[in-house]
Every structure is written in structure tokens, then in C-alpha cells.
Write a structure and sequence with these properties.
The protein has 16 helices and 3 strands. The protein is mostly helical and about 400 residues long. Bound molecules: coenzyme A.
Length: about 400
């Protein structure tokens, strides 16, 4: 076996959670096409599906949703931690810090290894719900705390997406926007074994507590080659400035061998099906607002058209991050909170993989190809030749 950079094409797990065909642009969660879930399901139901393997019945969904609603509040100590974080720090760093702290405020991780037999089903289910419910609360709280305001308390009379929008904006959520946000969470909830899910699996394989598993995944999602791309897409569109400039901007960018944010994917060689759905939502929002939508959307479309001629032949097309940022921006969400929204949604997938792996856990311990110095004797200082480094 030889080393494969980026483990491209190397199976690292066996999973029944999601399926992706990058040649045909198909993504399914537990067998259900993403297009149907985005259209008909809710984030709560999708999270249940990912976590338990089947769509819930009415009573099961109600019980799951009730638990999610009842677990929205986080201990005030977490709010105190937030108060001491730099207000200009990136929200993904806040999120990783606060999620990592949750285990201390909600102890029980010793049950991970009870008698060496692994955690009980009750612990797995209840902590997963607590973490998933807390995610939107943490991101929403930070939006206020970093401005020096008191955080908005979560509400139990709203759906997951409605409550998130309410906590972010402190306004009654617009039903169309809430439905769009709900569908966005569904779209981002799971995506086979991507970098952050792999990080979650590696951490989970050591039987670390689930909040630490999610914290590992959050750190991995933060990078610009993964979840961090959606924020950069918006910065890029602003830099382009107007649709007419898209083509020349792209030419220069490619001549400088720089990546175009929101384009390309290790797996998809056609347009990411999620990008299509998001674009449909932008159209829906435009209609809802009587034709008024951010000029960034027109720039994005012009860039996509220009890129079709220069990148499509390499199998490089818009990915999920290309239109999500424009959509969130149009809903009044600050740019640096885009990746945290991705993290909120993907927590459902991370925890589903964590649970699946626990059933047949084996610690990850790959091997390496060593290319360093041969074994040699330690050199005393006076025999070393300086200037080697
Ligand atoms: N802009 C311009 N060119 C791109 C590109 C992009 N976003 N993505 C890929 N390419 C080009 C590469 O330069 C390469 O060209 P070459 O064959 O002439 O050298 C070719 O397409 C194949 O790309 P490769 O780097 O092998 O793909 P990968 O699977 O290693 O990388 C990503 C996948 C996602 C890391 C990469 O597409 C990227 O950096 N995209 C931008 C960041 C982004 O949007 N990430 C979010 C992913 S959901």
C-alpha cells in the first residue's frame, strides 16, 4: 500500500448514513435524495433520520423535537466564557471553545467508557440532543455578546430554524426566510466522510466525550478549503464589484493560479446538487421581496457563467458554499457567521457518524511512509555544523 495524498479515494470507514455520486451529482441521506429532503423535510426530522436511520413517526418526531426545544438553554457559565473572548475573534473559534467547554458544565463523559463497554444508548441520545440544541444558541448568543449586548434567550415555541433566526436578529422570523433557513440546515447536515466528519471520527474513536468530538470537527470545518469557503465567497464577490467585471477578474485570478472560492470539490465533478437548490432559494427569496435582492447575486451568476468556460472542463463547478453566503447575507446574517451556520447543521451528521462508529469502535491509527533521516547518533554541540537550517 502506498501513501495517497489527502487519502483521495481511500475508504476510511463503512457507513450507512449518506451516499454521494459525484459524477451524477446525487446525494442521499439514509437513501433519501437531498432534493426531496430539502423540499419536504425539516431540520429536526432530518437530524432524527440521520441519527436513528429512519424517518420518524409523528409521536417520535414530536418527542425528539420537544427534547431539542427543552435543551436550548445553556448554562450561564458558558455565557461568562463568551464575555471574556475578544469581540473581534472569529465565531468559529468562539464556537469551538464553547462547545469544548460543554462537557465540563454537563458532565457524564465518564459514562463513555463505563466498564469498558462503551456508553449507554441513553447517554448517546441525550448528549447528542443537548449538543445539537446548544449549537444554534451559542452562535445566536455570540451575535449579541460580541456587541456588548445581553444575549437573547432561546424560545421553545419556535422551530429550530425559526429560533435560530430569532436569536440572531431579535426579530420575529419571517416565515419564508425561516423555511429557507430550515432547508439550508437540511442541505448542510451531512456529506459522507468529508474532512470535518473524518476529524470527528478520529476523535470519537478514542472514546473522547461527544462535545470534544464536535469541537474537533468544528476546528476542521473552520478552514477555508472546507466550511470557511462560504465567507470567502462573499468577500470575493464584493471585490469583483459588478457583474461586468466578473470575467476579467476571473481571468486574472486564474492567471495568478489562485483558487476561486466556492468552486470545485474533491467528489463532485458536476455542479453540486446543493448549489442548485440554494440558487432556487435565492430566486424564491427574490420573488418574496418583489424582485429586490442583493446585487451580489447577479455578480455570482455572472461569475458562474464566466467560470463555465474556463473551469467546467476540469470538472470544477459551483459547490455548496457558492450560493449559501449570498443567501445568508440577504437574510441579514454577518459574513463571519456563515461557517458557524454550516457547523450547526453539520453537527447532526457528525453526531450520527459518532453514534454509528461507537457500535463497532476501533481506534484510528494509520501508518506513514517515513522519508526522514536514517537512525543516527546524537551530536554534541561542539561537533555540529551551524547554518543547516
Ligand atoms: N478554482 C480554480 N481552480 C480550481 C478550483 C477552484 N476553486 N478547484 C479546483 N481547481 C483546479 C485545480 O487547480 C486543478 O487544476 P490543474 O489540474 O490544472 O492543476 C484541478 O481543478 C483539480 O483540482 P484539485 O486541486 O485536484 O482538486 P481537489 O480535490 O484537491 O480540491 C477543493 C478540492 C475543494 C479543495 C478545491 O476545489 C478548492 O480549493 N476549492 C475552493 C475552496 C472551496 O470552495 N471549498 C469548499 C468545498 S465544499
Amino acid at each position: 500500500m502506498s501513501y495517497v495524498p489527502g487519502l483521495q479515494g481511500v475508504p476510511a470507514t463503512r457507513s450507512s448514513i449518506s451516499f454521494l455520486d459525484g459524477q451524477q451529482g446525487i446525494l442521499t441521506y439514509r437513501g433519501y435524495p437531498i432534493v426531496e429532503l430539502a423540499r419536504h423535510s425539516t431540520f429536526e426530522e432530518t437530524a432524527y433520520l440521520l441519527f436513528h436511520g429512519e424517518l420518524p413517526g409523528q409521536a417520535e418526531l414530536e418527542a425528539f423535537d420537544r427534547e431539542l426545544r427543552n435543551n436550548r438553554r445553556v448554562k450561564y457559565n458558558v455565557r461568562e466564557i463568551m464575555k471574556f473572548l475578544p469581540t473581534d475573534g472569529h465565531p468559529m473559534e468562539m464556537l469551538q471553545t464553547c462547545v469544548a467547554s460543554l462537557g465540563m458544565f454537563y458532565p457524564g463523559s465518564e459514562r463513555m467508557t463505563a466498564d469498558g463497554a462503551g456508553p449507554t444508548e441513553e447517554f448517546v441520545n441525550s448528549t447528542a440532543i443537548k449538543i445539537l440544541a446548544s449549537m444554534a444558541t451559542l452562535v445566536g448568543m455570540w451575535n449579541h455578546i460580541r456587541r456588548g449586548d445581553d444575549p437573547v434567550l432561546p424560545r421553545t415555541d419556535l422551530t429550530y430554524a425559526e429560533n435560530f433566526l430569532y436569536m440572531m436578529t431579535e426579530r420575529e422570523p419571517d416565515p419564508v426566510e425561516a423555511r429557507i433557513m430550515d432547508a439550508c440546515l437540511v442541505l448542510h447536515a451531512e456529506h459522507t466522510i468529508n474532512a470535518s466528519t473524518f476529524a470527528a471520527l478520529v476523535c470519537g474513536s478514542t472514546l473522547a466525550a461527544p462535545n470534544l468530538v464536535v469541537a474537533s470537527a468544528i476546528g476542521t470545518l473552520a478552514g477555508p478549503l472546507h466550511g470557511g469557503a462560504n465567507q470567502r465567497v462573499l468577500e470575493m464577490l464584493r471585490e469583483i464589484g459588478s457583474p461586468e467585471k466578473a470575467e476579467s477578474w476571473l481571468e486574472k485570478r486564474l492567471a495568478n493560479k489562485q483558487v476561486v472560492w466556492g468552486f470545485g470539490h474533491r467528489e463532485y465533478k458536476v455542479k453540486d446538487p446543493r448549489a442548485d437548490i440554494l440558487q432556487g432559494m435565492l430566486e424564491q427569496l427574490r420573488e418574496h421581496r418583489h424582485g429586490e435582492l442583493s446585487p451580489l447575486y447577479d455578480i455570482a451568476k455572472a461569475l458562474e457563467a464566466a467560470a463555465a468556460e474556463r473551469l467546467a472542463h476540469k470538472g470544477v463547478h459551483p459547490n455548496v458554499d457558492f450560493y449559501s453566503g449570498v443567501l445568508y447575507d440577504a437574510m441579514g446574517i454577518p459574513e463571519d457567521q456563515f461557517t458557524p451556520i454550516f457547523a450547526i447543521a453539520r453537527t447532526a451528521g457528525w453526531l450520527a457518524h459518532w453514534k454509528e462508529q461507537l457500535a463497532q469502535n476501533r481506534i484510528y491509527r494509520p501508518t506513514q511512509e517515513y522519508v526522514g533521516a536514517p537512525t543516527r547518533s546524537y551530536l554534541p554541540m561542539d561537533l555540529r555544523v551551524s547554518g543547516h537550517h
